[in-house]
Amino acid sequence: MRMSVGLHARQSQVQKLAPRMIQSMEILQMPTLALQERIEQEMNENPLLEQVAGDPLSPDDGDDEAPSKDTRSEDEKELVVDNDHNNKDDFERLLNMDADSSSNFDDSFRRSANRMSEEADRRHDMMANAQSRPESLNDFLLHQLAELDIDDEVEQIAERIVSTLNASDGGYLRTPLADMLPPGHTKEDLAKAEEALAVVQSLEPTGIAARDLAECLILQLDPKNPHFDELQKLIRLHLNDLAENRLPQIAKKTGLSIEDIQELRMDLHLLNPKPGAAFLETYVPNVTPDIILEQDESGEYRVRLDDDRVPNLFISKYYRKRLQASDCTTEEREFIKQKINGAQWLIDSIEQRRSTLTKVAEAIVEHQKRFLDEGPEAIEPLKMQQIADKVGVHVTTVSRAVDDKWIQTPRGILPLRRFFVGGTQTEDGDDVAWDTIRLKLQELIDKEDKSKPFSDEALVEELQQAGMTVARRTVTKYRKKMGIPSSRQRRDWTLSS
């Protein structure tokens, strides 16, 4: 094979997104609270950006006024929302602005005292309103250990054991005791480790530091319970049979009646299989609706953006006048022009976000009227491509528009993505959403005879009688996703005995 080294010219066509267009897409994807933070950041970095008087966080700049539309230059024109042509001209103008802007200019500047003071106040408020960090599982156990009067060596090993426990794993001990001891440890050292483990397992929450589920449950049993021995025996020898609801096999092996086993199992259900999970830090998002859906007097739905907290921006009149001043240096003029381009792009991107988000929300609401009127069982199958075709934008634009956005409806605050669901067809050719099928599946299982619960094949037949043709593997898949046990596990043996 012959190899050669040389230079070759090749022509190719590639499509790249300009940085400003990427910024516009990012702004479309932002929820209202994130957009507020982005605007604050941009105002700190761009001295040409100002807020209309009366807006939240509006700086006091004396005689600066919002410019009237007829006094703006071509680059400063406000975005004109063209509902008939999807704002193509506006996006072309924004791309031209990006191409004309200088990428080599140093845009650093000194912030005003007012802005620095506002930023300090906001940070102080955030720190004052921040939630205190809850006590972790490890800290909780270490505090209990510190109160015990135990041997120092045992305490050191106990602390080592506590350090390996994880609340996300339920507080189980996954590391062998031998691995916590130095190489060449003796039987006496291992006995010390067992003693330390017993100390940790005596702490609250009960069942902590267990090496498996059976040990965790046994640690939680009350020795004063009159059925203590039977419960221990069930846990040690028949835990898998209990999980699979094989009560007749347990009765045959233990000599207990089905009713007695059922009562013992109810006692076991009171125990906690993951005692350490109570110390998990749960994150509850602070949901603020981006869109408000209201009904007018005639019952028609009206969509409006809840962006009152988003400030109305304009370009500083002082700097626009400064640009035309005779003593404005070339360096100063280039700086102002660059900042004007950045400010105008941000203003136009925010307006484009308002337009796109409103049109997408209106299209979604129009398609899902039955869901809003009648409830979850009436939701219609909907794909993002359908909304994209209706609005006249790319499907990725719809995806960004609905991402992390919430809408306040008469049925509560819902994520916009909640309205997009897959589906199948009935025997009559009508579309039916998977959510509707899941609701019907739950209804069938709730009403079934627990002495002879429906198998997955029987559920397929029941759904077909309701006009929903679904494969058995689909029923199995959604049953598991809904946390519904198999027919054998749902069977109540006390009813069939």
From TrEMBL:
Ranges of Basic and acidic residues composition bias in the record: 66-95
UniProt domain RNA polymerase sigma factor 54 DNA-binding: residue ranges: 334-491
GO biological process terms held by the UniProt record: DNA-templated transcription initiation
Entry's Gene Ontology cellular component terms: DNA-directed RNA polymerase complex
Span of domain RNA polymerase sigma factor 54 core-binding: 128-319
Region of interest (Disordered), residue spans: 51-122
Superkingdom as given in the UniProt entry: Bacteria
InterPro entries (UniProt xref): RNA_pol_sigma_54, RNA_pol_sigma_54_core-bd, RNA_pol_sigma_54_DNA-bd, RpoN_core-bd_sf
GO molecular function, a single term: DNA-binding transcription activator activity
Keyword terms of this UniProt record: DNA-binding, DNA-directed RNA polymerase, Nucleotidyltransferase, Sigma factor, Transcription, Transcription regulation, Transferase
Family statement: Belongs to the sigma-54 factor family.
Protein name: RNA polymerase sigma-54 factor
Gene that encodes the chain: rpoN
